[in-house]
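Why does residue order matter? Because the sequence determines the fold. Keep that principle in mind as you read this record.
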Amino acid sequence: MPGQGYIALKLNLSQAKALHDFLAKNNFSNLIAPEKMHMTLIYDKRNPDIKYEKSVNAYKADLKSIKALGTGNWRAVVLELNAPEISKRHDALISAGYKHSYDDFVPHLSIKYKPDNSDIDRLQSLISEIKSLFPAFIFSNEYAEELDNSEDDMQNFILKSFVNAGRFAEGDKKISDFNPEQIKLGIEVEYEHTNSKVIALKIALDHLAEIPDYYTRLAKMESDAKRELGLK
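Structure:
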């Protein structure tokens, strides 16, 4: 029986409404609704069946910076926060057996999904005002939910099917059989032509399936050509 893989804290509702109103007055649109503003503590796709004890504490956090996090539909402009006590709560959940499905735990408050560059720049310009209005954000009402991984499972199936096609799939090699440095170079080169690292990987693998040191040869060819043309 699956457990609960998502654990979060809610932002104080009065603060959430005030923050939403402030940003709306500064011409931000499609903001996350105040009642949905939260901080993720754990995102564990396994939905582990762990005995969960909810914290009843309230936590303070102050604004550190503005940044964009996530990818695709879940890319968001966020307030990155200094929140040492919340980080300790995250660590306690990890010690209890949870895993976090991202490389690092970054305490943050998402403001808007699918932002454009102007949203990030404009929010940067308001950072002093936000710090003045909210010297400390308050998070509490911890809650846990089961994660729905059906969309991730389908995407992983599609991506796996996509990578395992073409020239790479015609041979009997696995990705681990290729030189990792060549794969890294290949993704960097092909990423110039797509915004998908999976597609960049697919193109790189097709090239490396034919020529194992393809990207070293490509770099040398470009270097020789620039030298002949007197380019830097």
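The chain has two domains: 6-145, 150-224.
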